[in-house]
Specification:
alpha/beta, four-stranded antiparallel sheet, globular, 10 helices
Length: 325
Amino acid sequence: MTTILQVEGLRKEYRKASNWLSRLFKQSGASLYAVDDVTFSLRAGETLGLVGESGCGKSTLSRTLMRLYEPTAGTIIFLGENITAHGQKDLRKMRKNMQMVFQDPYSSLNPRMTVREMLAETIRFHQICQTEKELNEYIEYLLVRVGLHARDADKYPKAFSGGQRQRICIARAIAVKPKLLIADEPVSALDVSVQAHILNLLEDLKNEFNLSLIFISHDLSVVKYISDRVAVMYLGKIVEMGTTEEIFQKPVHPYTQALLSAVPRIDQGVREKIGIEGDPPSPYEQHTGCPFFSRCPKRMPHCERETPPFYQSGETHQIRCHLSV
């Protein structure tokens, strides 16, 4: 399969503002490493699930991929082009092929615009339709395709529930017929009864439009349902990556094992939960080895010095714990 996205050594660093005391002693402000040396690839038509606890850098990574946040270091190769070197004009063209659905459907829509106006703005900007008649027909088609009614086009966002608003956000994202869709926790703000409908919609649209999907969530059961491969993040780094079956059936990294042990299952008896002791290390420190080293019950001396190895198994790029080699 064709690789449409290749990320190499991506970093996003935030410089902490210095105070008067640090300026007095000519000390620079500390840096927070939100995304730290992330490397992965995505194939055409594939769904990559990105999981990890809150604050691990998932959302920052997604926004950096979109160049909504400027990367500190590393490269992003999308459809064969190094988009980290793109200026604003080239970025506008790139974003036609890379769209994003955000977590909060309430803040993602302009309350002063109707659904028709919001969708038309995106469609006109990227010149998808040639005439006003074609534009209106396309808007109504999009609304029906995501499970709404054509008559909803002239309503304002306040007339819709959270699930309906997220459907509008999805319609806006697919309106420009992108190659890649990044969904940043698109169901976490919705009722459980609505989540399954949105997940099924994303899966149907992925197959219909031949989309590649990066699906970000902290809900492992959701990620297992929708993903072909899974990447596990901890403290800005990817600590384990593999196929969905590998991650959920034979996790290697102790952090992944601890996450999975906390997921309730009805097909087994009482399962021992793996506790994680200690506090996470400071995100203001750049770690040369495994970021989980200080809390890992199975740590080895070289884990403090070396990052988990990156290798290729068959057609699947993997990042695995040192315990696997």
